[in-house]
Amino acid sequence: MNIREQHGTVILELKGKLVGGSLNGRMNQTLNNLLDQGKKNIVVDLSSVTHINSSGMGILISGYSKVKDKGGALKLANLTSKMKGLLSITKLNRIFETYNSVDEAVQSFI
Asked: Most buried residue, 25, 37, 43, 74, by CB count within 10 Å?
């Protein structure tokens, strides 16, 4: 996971397989640290994610809830067509705001 900032928005770049495991703890800790620093506009860049399963979806849902509970917003960018289909099937597309690019997601906060 890489973390960078653009126009006051934090971008979390996830890479590889989003299948739970150690990423769950790292994501949770990262979000806690960001929220403690007052950073509440967060974009998760999924462009380098090659696979996602139900545990990976759980990580995103948990992150979304954590950020929302602190008055922030977590948005998704660069989803593959497979990921978009998964969000649609699970009706999570009604919860997550998704964008075609990180730039579009960042602009939505401005």
From this structure: 43
The correct CATH number of 2-107 out of 3.90.1300.10, 3.30.530.20, 3.30.750.24, 3.10.450.50 is: 3.30.750.24
The model's pTM is: 0.93
Segments of the chain assigned E as strands: 2-6, 9-18, 41-52, 73-77, 98-99
In whole angstroms, give the CA distance from residue 71 to residue 74.
Answer: 10
Mean pLDDT of 20-35: 87
- DSSP code for 38: T
Average pLDDT, the chain: 93
